[in-house]
Amino acid sequence: MNHEVKNGIYWVGAIDWDLRDFHGYSTPKGTTYNAYLIVDEKIALVDTVRQGFFDEMLMRVSGIVEPEKVDYLIIDHLEKDHSGSIEDAMKVFKNAKIISSERGKKGLDEWYDNKWPIIVVKTGSTLSLGKKTLKFLETPMLHWPDNMMTYAEEDRVLISSDAFGQHIASSQRFENDMHYDIREDARTYYANILMPFAPLILKLLDKVKDVNIQPEIIAPAHGLIWRSPEKILEAYKRWSMFESGPKIVIAYDTMWGTSSRMARLIAIGAIDEGVEVRMYDIRKSHISEIVSDLQDARAFALGSPTLNNGMFTSVGALLTYLKGLKPKNKIGVGFGGYGWAGGAVKEITEALKSMGLDTIEPGFQVKYVMKKDDEKECIDLGRRIAKRIKE
Ligand SMILES: Cc1cc2nc3c(=O)[nH]c(=O)nc-3n(C[C@H](O)[C@H](O)[C@H](O)COP(=O)(O)O)c2cc1C
Ligand SMILES: [Fe+2]
Ligand SMILES: [Fe+2]
């Protein structure tokens, strides 16, 4: 039960095996809520767990120290999956003081009618626990205003809050103990939670060096702990620069099959040109899965039939979700079936353009059903997109 991260620093979180949806994002592997206990002359707990998991966390803490002896509860992030057990925890940690950022303190006042003693810290502030020194790094908007990270200086363990996490419930605690490369899960997590903040991440990666944080271990708030920090730091850098491969994501919805046939023919053209194709029927796939695949794709082809002069609601939902994630460095194209005046392809093209995608215009629409010429045009569109990708 005892999971030592390093030298008196313990994982004391909880495993949520059953979670399948995390605020609208699909989590087929569940998740963990990671809390870390740092034991020295003084004892600090970094974060708590989601409400309902407090007993599991307390059981783990009790296996290491008497809970009443916890001196500090550090709140790196206010979101409920981490702060949800504060009230329960502070009842047990009778003598503890809370440590948070200034914005964290404001949030604690708003959310929990903060009645606890609190110490506010800033980037560079330190707290001595005896032999160990904790240093704090504010990371506003990664991904909430209150976020900060806690660095155990002597042990070089960076407790990184939501950054560098993954939604995986597992018995293993360390990334290198897993039977597969979890960077794919880390990328899914990044795409759905951190992509909008890519410019801030690039700044953070520089800042970490400025404040002399050189972690040997990165311990995020979800999923597995990184013993090879460069693995995930290098990936975050690549992802935040929107590096993409010769890959196109094609997503569509359809009523009577014209738009789906178009999608398959576009794919044939692109495959002929040697580009990797990923295909999604939007109604059969979760939007979070589609945007994860799109994260490192160079092009996005989105298809919708016209319904009452506009696009399908499923396509609109995907576009709304994508807009919030602020994708960069992508080619976009719309396509779809129509009957009389059309409208969906124009709406899709405008939406992609307004998000900053480099659109191929005017896209392509097919009246009612495919004719021979339409088939050729679709294959040709696939080829044209592929050529743009390879430029
Ligand atoms: C309920 C309904 C509403 C439609 N509204 C429009 C419309 O407003 N404008 C238009 O051009 N076509 C409209 N259509 C025709 C479809 O867009 C056309 O049949 C198209 O080829 C369907 O593509 P799909 O086979 O991919 O579903 C409508 C069809 C249905 C069933
Ligand atoms: Fe969060
Ligand atoms: Fe979280």
From TrEMBL:
SUPFAM superfamilies: Flavoproteins, Metallo-hydrolase/oxidoreductase. One of its GO terms (molecular function) is metal ion binding. It holds the Pfam family Flavodoxin_1. SMART domains: Lactamase_B. Signal peptide: none annotated. Residues 248-386 form the Flavodoxin-like domain. InterPro entries: Flavodoxin/NO_synth, Flavoprotein-like_sf, Metallo-B-lactamas, ODP_dom, RibonucZ/Hydroxyglut_hydro, Rubredoxin-O_OxRdtase. PROSITE patterns: FLAVODOXIN_LIKE (PS50902). This is MBL fold metallo-hydrolase. It comes from Methanooceanicella nereidis. The lineage of its organism: Archaea, Methanobacteriati, Methanobacteriota, Stenosarchaea group, Methanomicrobia.
